[in-house]
Automatic annotation (TrEMBL):
Family: Belongs to the binding-protein-dependent transport system permease family.
Subcellular localization, as worded in the UniProt entry: Cell inner membrane; Cell membrane
Name of the featured protein: ABC transporter permease
InterPro entries membership: MetI-like (IPR000515), MetI-like_sf (IPR035906)
Keywords: Cell inner membrane, Cell membrane, Membrane, Transmembrane, Transmembrane helix, Transport
Predominant location category: membrane
Domain ABC transmembrane type-1 residue range list: 126-345
Coiled coil: none
Membrane topology of the entry: Multi-pass membrane protein
Amino acid sequence: MGAYILRRLLLIIPTLLGIMIINFALVQFVPGGPIEQILAQVQGEGDVFAGIAGGGGEIASGGGAEGYVGGRGLPPEFIASLEKEFGFDKPPLERFLNMLWNYMHFDFGQSYFRSISVIDLVLEKMPVSISLGLWSTVIAYIISIPLGIRKAVKDGSTFDTWTSAAIIVAYAVPGFLFAILLLVLFAGGSYWQIFPLRGLTSDNWEQLSWGAKILDYFWHIALPVLASTISAFATLTLLTKNSFLDEIKKQYVMTARAKGLTESRVLYGHIFRNAMLIVIAGFPAVFIGVFFSGSLIIETIFSLDGLGRLGFEAAVARDYPVIFGTLFIFGIIGLVVGILSDLMYVLVDPRIDFEKREG
């Protein structure tokens, strides 16, 4: 198993390289780079973002002064100075190689439009996304797996029918609509002011005791986590049920029952190990989906400043150091989570040996 993990870790390098090459190449053809936006700001037109923070500009697209529509009427020396400050005076290949060299030293540069380094910016936003992604995934698994097993055992019963109806409705409701509903009902929208509207903690969090800090934290994330969990919960429950139903019908289950084993022993001693493999296989997709993909809308609705909003704002502003830095970090997290999923396979069923399968 050690050799397999080592090979998977080494595969991270070419995978990340491929991701960065493709995205860097695509960026070269995207109009409206950061210099164009700054020139538009100078001339009082176009999208306006904060002023230049300067520094670290080897990761962007853009040509000479004649390539900037917003540069008409402005001195070429001014545009040339912007190109030099952002690093656009260098060829694309040189910028890309410089970027990779810096990333090898975990130097992700500085945001174009914020006076902060990319790594500090990511660390600043990380608690929000970790809170949403981690707790949503944990809650989804804690609820969905027992519920899916129960539905499989009671297949066709009234319990199965009603819970299936509730799950279908939950899956059909868009996450953002459910978030707005929670906001209106429980965050002072029109009815009850039970939960806070924004932030992970209260303003006086530092003055609270440890117990009060924990309660305050969960009080703030209750609604966002619930809104993030709803779709993953529905999918995971049906996946668990179908996986267990498929295993229940197999010959080895009939043999175990014929030997006189209790239903509980058959279910959790024999069926559980095999049925859970497909559920575990979906863990990386569930975690990454909640952690990254579904966070933007939830963060916006509940006024949370996390990685979802950071990535969106960076894309709109063409803040390339932030875009590529977060892409690199997210890629590493996704690949490592995939390796952890394989380790969970072995933990659930020790008979699985990835090294023999590869051989």
